[in-house]
Amino acid sequence: LNAFNCWNTFFLLYQNISALQIGKVINHYGRQMSIPSVVSLEGKVVEILKMGDPRLLRIAEPIENFNSEDLHQLIRDMKATMKSVNGAGLAAPQIGVNLQLVIFGSDSINPRYPDRPMVPPTVLINPIIIPIGDEQDDGWEGCLSVPGLRGTVPRWKNIQYKGFDEYGNVIDRVVDDFHARVVQHECDHLIGILYPMRVKDFTKFGYTEVLFPEIAATEDDD
C-alpha cells in the first residue's frame, strides 16, 4: 500500500496510488471557492461536474481553517445538491471546489440504495483511510459525476478513517461493508479517481436502466 498525508501533505493509505505531495491550501477560502460574500442559511443546488471534466482529475488541497462562514456555506450547498439528486455522498471536487471535503450519509433510506444499511450523516475533512486486513469485496457503485451507469468495484471490506468535521473536531471511526465503501468512493474524488477507473470486470458495468430498472427512476447518481 502507498500513503498520502492528510494535513500539510495529504496521505491516503489506499491501493494502486503513488505518493503525491500537495501544496498548502490558500487561507482565504473566498478566493478559492468563489462563494458569494452574502451569508445565506440556505444551501443552493449547484452544478455537478461530469466525467470528462479535467477538474475531476485534480488532487484536492487540504483545508486549514475550520468553522469559517465560507466553509459552512460550501457544506450547505453540498448538502442541498446531494439531497436534490438522492445522492449517498458528494465530494467538493465534484462541484469544482478543489478541497479535501466530502459529505455522506443520511437519516433515512436512500431510494437509490434501498437495500443498503444507513450511514450516519457525516462531514469529513482532510481524511485518511487505513485498510484493516486484506479482505476486499466487489460491490455495485454509481456516481453523480458518471450519471446513468453502474459498475462493480473492489473495495476494502474493513477500514479505519480519520479526519475532522467542519468545526475541527476529530473524527476517528472503524467501519465495514457499505459504510466503508461509501467512504472509499467519496475519498477517491479527492485524489482524482472516479469509480470506473477501479472497475476490474467490465461485464459488470453498464446502464442503470438495464442493470437495475427498478431503481433507474431514482437516478441522477453517486
- How large a portion of the residues is in β-strands, by DSSP E? 15-25%
Order of helices and strands: HHEEEEEEEHEH
What percentage of residues falls in helices of 4 or more residues? Answer: 10-25%
Quote the average pLDDT: 83
> pLDDT under 50 segments (min length 5)?
1-38
Shape: globular
End-to-end Cα distance: 26 Å
Strand count, sense and barrel status of the largest sheet are: 5 strands, antiparallel
- Strand order across the largest sheet: 1-2-3-6-7
**Structural class by SSE content:** alpha+beta
Number of strands: 8
Count of alpha/pi helices: 4
Radius of gyration, CA atoms, in whole angstroms: 16 Å
Q: How would you characterize this protein structure?
A:
With 222 residues, this protein is of the alpha+beta class. 17% of the residues lie in helices and 24% in strands. It contains four helices and eight strands; from the N terminus they run H-H-E-E-E-E-E-E-E-H-E-H. It has helices at 29-33, 69-84, 177-188, 208-211, and strands at residues 89-91, 101-104, 122-131, 136-143, 146-156, 158-164, 170-176, 205-207. It has a five-stranded antiparallel sheet with strand order 1-2-3-6-7, sandwiched between helices. The longest helix has 16 residues, at 69-84. It is globular and about 45 Å long. 36% of the residues are buried.
